Amino acid sequence: MAIRNEMNFVGLGLVLAAIAAGGCGSTGTGGTGASSPTTSTTTGSGTTSAGTTSAAGTTSAAGTTSAAGTTSAAGTTSGSSSGSTGAGCAASDVPTGASLATFDGDGGLLDNAGITTYGGTAAPTESTSTGSLVITENAAAATAAQYVGTVLYFAGNAAGTDCLDVHSYTGVQYDISGSIAGCTLQFSLNDSEHTVTANDMKGSAVAGSYGPQLDATTQVTATKTTVKVPWTGTGAPTGGSPATALDPTKLTSIQWQFTIPAAGTAACTSTLTIDNVTFY
Known about the structure:
Blueprint: H1 12-20, E1 26-30, E2 38-44, E3 84-86, E4 89-93, E5 99-101, E6 113-118, E7 125-127, E8 133-139, E9 146-154, E10 163-164, E11 171-181, E12 184-191, E13 213-215, E14 225-230, E15 251-260, E16 268-279
Parallel strand pairs: 4-10
Antiparallel strand pairs: 1-2, 2-6, 3-4, 5-16, 6-9, 7-8, 8-16, 9-15, 11-14, 11-16, 12-13, 12-15
């Protein structure tokens, strides 16, 4: 059964203001599936913002764009990006390396990446102070199912307008360990087509859309396990809305989501330790 999920991120201006004030943190907004968006905390060196953005550069009648690269009549873009563009993505850029996050030192995040949580008062907390991403969830069941989680989001540029083109990789992998009770865990991949435009400038989807996902509950054990999740094929996330395959040329984020069932008899309690998130 597909589990709905939605996310919002803050604008770059708030991040720059936070940096000017002497810190890397800022505030963002998250969604809890079927419920309305709520405020959450975001950390990282880059972020995205709600709304739409026009392409950089000046376009002549012949269709040639300056500054951000040259666009031919057929619509292909050259320059710093990989040449893959689409609705919601100003461009799609190849990442500077395969490592998404090691959570060491300054956070160990890929350039223009960040971490946010969503789910309102039931949202998990996250910390990287131990050199790993530690996600802690402790929330009671409510009258309706709750969708709360942690998102690792990224952009191809500091402005947050570009998606990542990772089609040359097979998928993403990460180390995970911990405990979980009273709820289930889903892992999701998100691209522009499954990201709501109003929540992220790189999104091209309507409200209610969400990315393909897989059940990750059985991944959570006391022993650290390395999990590989391909973009397509056996073991890849499925479903989503729209029910279309992930486009790895327009990747926007990955996430771990807890689903807390309605009217449960116990609280959702979980501690996850995640590390070494890489493309493979």
